[in-house]
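Collaborator request, handled under Task 6.
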Amino acid sequence: MKIAEIVEQIKEANPKTLGKLTDAKAARIISAAFAEVGKHVDATTEGAVKIPALGAFAIKQVEREKEGQKLTVKKISFRAAKPKAKAEKVS
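C-alpha cells returned to the collaborator:
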C-alpha cells in the first residue's frame, strides 16, 4: 500500500482528520511516522513495540541453523489492534 493511498483512505473515512493539509504534506507526515515506528522496531532486540490504535510488533531472538551453523536472528511478528466498538447514541 502506498502512502498516497493511505492519505486518500483517511480523507474518505473522515475528511476533517487532515484538515487543510495538502496531500503532499499529509503523505510526508505519515511517512515520517512510519519511519519512526520502523526505527523503534529495528532498535528493539526483545519485547514489544506497542502502538495504540495500530497494534503491537512482538520481537524476539531465535536460533536458526544455516549450513551447519547456528545463527541468532530477529523474528518480528505483528498483531493488529482490535477495533473498538462504537457506542450507540441513545436519544
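The cover message to the collaborator said: "The mean pLDDT is 91. The first helix runs from residue 3 to 13. Please let us know whether this matches your experimental observations."
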